[in-house]
């Protein structure tokens, strides 16, 4: 009878020890998980790398904090074609890098993340949880302003391109303008996950005319992840445009006329606010 009493108590104690340990996730967002827990990470584009980062500190069965309780974290059971880089060891923060297959079909995928205490020296064993992530090319929103611009020939115009990154990846983006014969340049930018950031992108055209161009934003990781927005660029010679070009350094005249140019540029600024 006494043995039958001791065995259930031992089992309860072991269960309490197993449930005491936890893992604090800090990226892509904050969450505390226990053994066999689950976490939905969010959206990621095909081919876009993302990170799962956790603190190495945890607690043992008695509630004592162990600063380097988890010594390494790694992924298991990834879908075919996905690439993983497991965390370094004995670091304050453990980070696993996961890259979905470049042509992964849309859908929700799952895999295991395991953190372990080497040799079980801290009596923590290991902890594992299931991570879910939604693969979709729709991981950002695009806003462009202004969409109708009037400039002089050869005069740069600044376009504000805002990228709202709703995914979990910090992979860079390319900004490109298509449809302007004189301008063919890409800008590489970074909008971190769960953030919105604006970038100033210059465009210009040498020859007068009305140009319909496309502001094109795509992920560096995959051309499948892209959005575009149309703009209209009217290139014509006019007094306001010429005065504005003076302020941009686009019009060259003898230096003796510089005081007059300053007044002309000031007049152009007045035009902007009328």
Describe this protein's structure:
The protein is of the alpha+beta class. It has 3 domains: 2-135, Immunoglobulin-like (Sandwich), CATH 2.60.40; 140-235, Immunoglobulin-like, CATH 2.60.40; 238-274, no CATH class. It contains 3 helices and 19 strands. The chain has helices at residues 2-20, 239-248, 258-272; strands spanning 22-27, 31-34, 37-44, 50-55, 58-59, 65-66, 72-76, 83-85, 93-99, 107-116, 126-135, 140-145, 148-151, 157-165, 173-178, 186-189, 195-203, 209-219, 226-235. Helix 2 crosses helix 3 (258-272). The longest helix has 19 residues, at 2-20. The protein is elongated, with a radius of gyration of 28 Å.
**What would the average pLDDT be, to the nearest integer?**
85
CATH architecture of the largest domain: Sandwich
Anisotropy-based shape: elongated
Uncertain runs: 1-18, 241-258, 260-267
Write the topology of this structure.
Blueprint: H1 2-20, E1 22-27, E2 31-34, E3 37-44, E4 50-55, E5 58-59, E6 65-66, E7 72-76, E8 83-85, E9 93-99, E10 107-116, E11 126-135, E12 140-145, E13 148-151, E14 157-165, E15 173-178, E16 186-189, E17 195-203, E18 209-219, E19 226-235, H2 239-248, H3 258-272
Parallel strand pairs: 3-11, 13-19
Antiparallel strand pairs: 1-2, 1-4, 4-9, 5-6, 7-10, 8-9, 10-11, 12-14, 14-17, 15-16, 15-18, 18-19
């Amino acid at each position: 009878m006494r043995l039958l009493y001791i065995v259930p108590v031992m089992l309860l104690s072991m269960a309490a020890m197993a449930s005491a340990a936890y893992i604090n996730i800090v990226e892509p967002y904050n969450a505390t998980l226990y053994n066999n827990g689950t976490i939905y990470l969010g959206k990621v584009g095909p081919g876009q790398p993302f990170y799962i980062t956790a603190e190495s500190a945890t607690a043992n069965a008695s509630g004592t904090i162990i600063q380097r309780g988890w010594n390494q974290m790694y992924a298991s059971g990834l879908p075919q074609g996905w690439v993983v880089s497991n965390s370094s060891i004995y670091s304050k923060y453990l980070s696993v890098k996961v890259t979905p297959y470049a042509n992964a079909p849309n859908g929700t995928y799952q895999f295991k993340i395991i953190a372990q205490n080497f040799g079980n020296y801290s009596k923590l064993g290991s902890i594992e949880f299931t991570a879910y992530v939604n693969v979709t090319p729709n991981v950002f929103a695009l806003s462009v302003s202004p969409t109708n611009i009037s400039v002089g020939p050869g005069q740069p115009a600044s376009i504000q391109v805002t990228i709202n990154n709703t995914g979990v990846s910090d992979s860079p983006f390319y900004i490109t303008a298509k449809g302007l014969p004189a301008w063919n340049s890409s800008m590489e930018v970074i909008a971190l996950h769960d953030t919105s950031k604006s970038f100033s992108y210059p465009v210009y055209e040498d020859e007068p005319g009305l140009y319909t161009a496309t502001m094109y934003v795509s992920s560096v990781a995959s051309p499948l992840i892209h959005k575009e927005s149309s703009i209209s660029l009217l290139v014509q010679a006019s007094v306001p445009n010429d005065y504005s070009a003076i302020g941009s350094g686009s019009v060259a005249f003898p230096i003796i006329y510089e005081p007059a140019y300053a007044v002309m540029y000031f007049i152009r600024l007045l035009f902007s606010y009328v």
